[in-house]
Amino acid sequence: MDSREALASFVRSLHRDHAENAAAWDNADLGDFLEALAAWIDDAAGWYRNTGHDLPDNADWAFFARALSAATVYE
After folding, report:
1. What is the largest CA-CA distance in the chain?
2. What is the mean pLDDT of each run of 10 residues along the chain (75 residues)?
3. Chain-centre distance of CA 41, in angstroms?
4. How far is it, in rounded angstroms, from Cα 56 to Cα 63?
């Protein structure tokens, strides 16, 4: 992911996939999805380590948090 536009495109592809294949998602409802998202963020360092990568030092977590928060009211 190298840009804000790429992230928006990725989120749109997730939305399309959910619309077409929600039954295949383990966390298809919003509550379960947000809980899984929080759990993954908590364990991100372990996921990166287990896949042979370093947790990015320059990840802009604040931007992602603002985007998630804004999505609760943005139309």
Report:
1. 39
2. 88 94 93 91 89 85 82 78
3. 9
4. 15
